[in-house]
Write a structure and sequence with these properties.
single chain
């Protein structure tokens, strides 16, 4: 691998990796989930699962990418045998399926930033601008623009990704810090702080709080997505895996906490009478309906609204770039040159993102199906390490001469625990798709949210992946 195909420094690599981890899940999902799961009580399991889920999976991904120097499909094949490339294909496709609608979300952020700057968002009717924009051709144009921008950046290679990360991530941190400082200086902001940091110890017996905390770690750190694996391909030879992975996890969750402070302090200060209604409005409702209303009631609110949506845009865009790079890398591993691979990914992203841009129902369906699919991805990473041998994986690929911190025998037990966590999460989320209206409704394959739609789409994907893998093994599609 040439020098131009590696990160120029650890600092550049860490900024790029942290920028992919920090996304909309930090800024819009974390405040809502924390608020609806008992505030400070939620933070305890959330912190525990940082160590028990996010950091171990980040370590696994970083190690595989750096050791195998290939995308998820080929990395799984090199690690545990070519018969298991389908597992890497699941990981890669799940992240790519999320890319198809995540570009739509990034487009929303772009449009709302422009609207905040120009003063287009009315402050009289909550959600009026959002409802006029959602599912419109403006949403389509914004989606296409962000997909094109991400593809153009990935076309320039890893050094282009690193350069933009050096600009966008520090800027994002400054923007969130400015918003947080403004939020905590608002009247009655202490109510939001008390809510976020007060622990009700008895509520720790509530299993759902623990499951939501584990889910939040799974969705907002990028652990198990295959994205860290992809960026680790371009790590320099002498890069530690364990310490870098821990730094990514801590950095990501620190930004989530800052976002929680700024959002909840703003809500409880400006609209304490409607705080519960606001935080329970869902990701889109909280961000695109209530945030503009909250800022419109603050002195200088239009400026702070523009800063908020600019921060959200940067967070979303850097995550989108990593998804485009992952899909591009998979094609490059099939000997397709980067320019052509990027073009194919960009075209596919635009086309397959159109249904989500035009139909909120389709968007919600894809978010549910492939969001839960990430639990399977995390499970497959743990399975791969266990199949290879957790002890062997630790000694041969993790505890190297480049390691600043070496892992002990306890590592194998942690990997098994990650596998068990993935199984529990998967069973729990699938149980949430079962309708109270009975099994007929639960198994409806065309519902926005049902067990039937999840199993149908997963079944089709897995069938294709396993079929491809078997043909590949026979040498009809690939030649090792």
């Amino acid at each position: 691998m040439s020098r131009s195909e590696t990160f120029s420094s650890r600092w550049g690599m860490m900024l790029a990796m942290l920028s992919l981890a920090v996304g909309t899940g930090n800024v819009w999902r974390f405040p809502r989930i924390a608020a609806t799961n008992d505030g400070g009580t939620f933070l305890i399991p959330w912190l525990i699962f940082l160590f028990a889920w996010s950091i171990p999976l980040l370590m696994i991904e970083f190690t595989i990418g750096k050791s195998m120097r290939a995308g998820p499909v080929e990395s799984f094949g090199k690690l545990i045998g070519s018969r298991f490339r389908w597992m890497g294909l699941w990981v890669a496709f799940t992240a790519t399926a999320i890319m198809f609608y995540y570009s739509v979300v990034t487009g929303w952020c772009l449009r709302f930033f422009i609207a905040a700057v120009t003063g287009e968002i009315p402050d009289q009717v909550p959600g009026s601008f959002w409802h006029g924009f959602e599912g419109s051709w403006q949403a389509v144009l914004a989606h296409v623009a962000m997909m094109a921008a991400a593809a153009a950046l990935v076309y320039r290679g890893v050094r282009g990704i690193e350069r933009i990360a050096r600009i966008l991530l520090p800027t994002l941190l400054v923007l969130i810090a400015v918003l947080m400082l403004r939020a905590i200086t608002l009247p009655n902001a202490h109510i939001g702080l008390n809510f976020l940091f007060t622990v009700h110890w008895g509520d720790l017996a509530n299993a759902e709080i623990w499951l939501q905390a584990l889910t939040q770690n799974a969705w907002d750190t990028g652990a198990g997505w295959g994205l860290i694996l992809t960026y680790a391909i371009y790590a320099r030879g002498r890069e530690d895996t364990t310490l870098n992975a821990a730094m990514i996890g801590f950095g990501n969750n620190s930004i989530s906490l800052m976002a929680g402070i700024l959002v909840l302090c703003t809500i409880f200060s400006v609209r304490p009478d409607a705080a519960i209604e606001i935080v329970g409005a869902g990701n889109n409702g909280l961000t695109f309906i209530w945030v503009p209303q909250l800022f419109s009631q603050m002195p200088g609110g239009q400026v702070f609204m523009a800063v908020f949506f600019l921060a959200l845009l940067f967070a979303a865009f850097t995550s989108l770039v990593s998804m485009v790079e992952l899909a591009t890398r998979v094609l490059m591993d099939r000997k397709i040159p980067r320019p052509r691979a990027v073009l194919l990914v960009g075209i596919a992203g635009v086309i397959f993102g159109l249904p989500s841009a035009l139909s909120p129902s389709f968007f919600n369906n894809q978010d549910a199906v492939w969001g839960i699919g990430l639990m399977v991805s995390g499970l497959l990473f743990a399975v791969a390490v266990i199949k290879f041998g957790a002890r062997k994986f630790r000694l041969e690929h993790m505890n190297t001469d480049d390691s600043d911190f070496t892992l002990g025998p306890w590592w194998r037990y942690l990997v098994v625990f990650v596998l068990l966590e993935a199984v529990v999460l998967l069973v729990w989320w699938l149980s949430q798709t079962i309708s109270q209206e009975g099994w007929a409704a639960s198994l409806d394959p065309f519902a926005d949210w049902s067990l039937g739609t999840v199993l149908l789409q997963w079944g089709i994907a897995l069938g294709i992946f396993i079929w491809w893998n078997r043909r590949a093994e026979r040498g009809t599609l690939i030649h090792d």
